[in-house]
Specification:
binds beta-D-fucofuranose, 6-stranded mixed beta sheet
Length: about 350
């Protein structure tokens, strides 16, 4: 009882801190974190037919468990971006709304792989039904995944891939990052008239979302746009602060940058600040293309300060629990449950902005 109260207090401060935009208290330990009613209001949107997923997850959880709950451990990366916060909210809200059939153990690894590994080990000890993981980097998972496999607990990779043999995880739910990079390259080419110097802000070193967004973009530029030159490419770790810092240094050493491609919107938003501080106009003097589709980039596009975003939907909670319920029921799932991404340009921003859910 005491524990429940503590977790509610914790969760209320999480939601309050998130609402103020200052990040939430770190959850280094594997304490279950529950969300409050306030959070639910923010996360009503459907992700990839989330409504269907919602029903199916409900059915599956009820059909298979009787009065036994679906117990899921989720090892989140951290709070590096608006996208990540939206995903966390989607997972926690879904679990809270289905607390009669679902028990969620949530860990925030504060961007550290060692914390994610610790969380997985503790989920194994707790003998959860399914382990969910957004792997901060691609490599280094073999041993702990093998431990989960030995314990008979399936691993579901959410939103980023892990570089392990296929028998060590059940499925990957997420986007085709190479395709996102290619779409971004085509948009950048259009924006700058297929010629000129551009710079690239990369995501976290070793993260599949960064490696593949770079590969898709760079390969497409090299193959189809001989007059576009990527003059600098450096990591900004998927954060706004580092996106700004790296862009500042790019601007100091180059005077003729025509475009910036950022592996996520937060880094683009940081770059926009740096461009303004350098006395240039983002969206005009320097065009922007980024990935995610968070509300802030739509606002920047509507204000004429950003040009394009490739949407990557973070509202994966319903789908994740649907898959978890299927696994608990012993059903097989596809090896890759693919998210569908789309391109949004500045001219669409004002119209779609009121309906953006994250
Ligand atoms: O694009 C970025 C986040 O893994 C797809 O991680 C995700 C990426 C997302 O921090 O904003």
């Amino acid at each position: 009882m005491k524990r429940k109260l503590l977790s509610m207090v914790l969760c209320l401060s999480v939601v309050a801190a998130m609402a103020m935009g200052c990040g939430n208290p770190k959850e280094a330990k594997n304490e279950p974190v529950k969300t409050s009613d306030a959070a639910k209001a923010d996360d009503k949107a459907d992700a990839n037919d989330a409504a269907d997923a919602d029903d199916a997850a409900d059915d599956a959880a009820e059909d298979t468990s009787g009065d036994e709950k679906l117990v899921v451990g989720f090892a989140q990366i951290g709070q590096e971006s608006g996208w990540r916060d939206a995903e966390t909210m989607s997972i926690q809200t879904y679990a809270e709304e289905h607390s009669d059939t679902i028990e969620l153990h949530f860990a925030d690894a504060q961007q550290k792989q060692e914390n994610q590994i610790k969380a997985i080990k503790s989920f194994i000890e707790q003998d959860v039904d399914v382990i969910g993981l957004a792997p901060v980097v691609e490599t280094g998972w073999d041993q702990v995944f093998a431990e989960a496999k030995d314990a008979g607990i399936p691993i579901v990779l959410l939103d980023r891939r892990a570089d392990v043999s296929e028998d060590l995880y059940t499925t990957f739910i997420g986007s085709d990052f190479i395709e996102e990079g290619k779409m971004a390259a085509a948009e950048m080419a259009k924006l700058i008239g297929e010629e000129g110097k551009i710079v690239e802000l990369e995501g976290t070193v070793g993260a599949s979302a960064a490696t593949d967004r770079k590969k898709g973009f760079d390969d497409e530029i090299a193959a189809s746009y001989p007059n576009i030159e990527i003059i600098a490419s450096q990591t900004g770790d998927f954060t706004r602060a580092q996106g700004k810092e790296v862009m500042e240094s790019f601007l100091k050493s180059n005077s003729d940058i025509k475009g910036v491609y950022a592996h996520n919107d937060d880094m683009a938003l940081g770059a926009i600040e740096a461009i303004k501080e350098a006395g240039l106009k983002p969206g005009e003097d320097i065009k922007t293309v980024s990935v995610d589709g968070v509300k802030d980039i739509f606002e920047a596009m509507a204000a004429g300060e950003a040009n394009c975003t490739v949407e990557c939907n973070p509202l994966l909670g319903p789908l994740f629990f649907e898959v978890a319920a299927q696994l608990k029921a012993g059903e097989s799932v596809e090896k890759w449950v693919k998210s569908v991404d789309g391109v949004f340009t500045a001219d669409m921003a004002a119209e779609v902005l009121p309906d953006r859910q994250y």
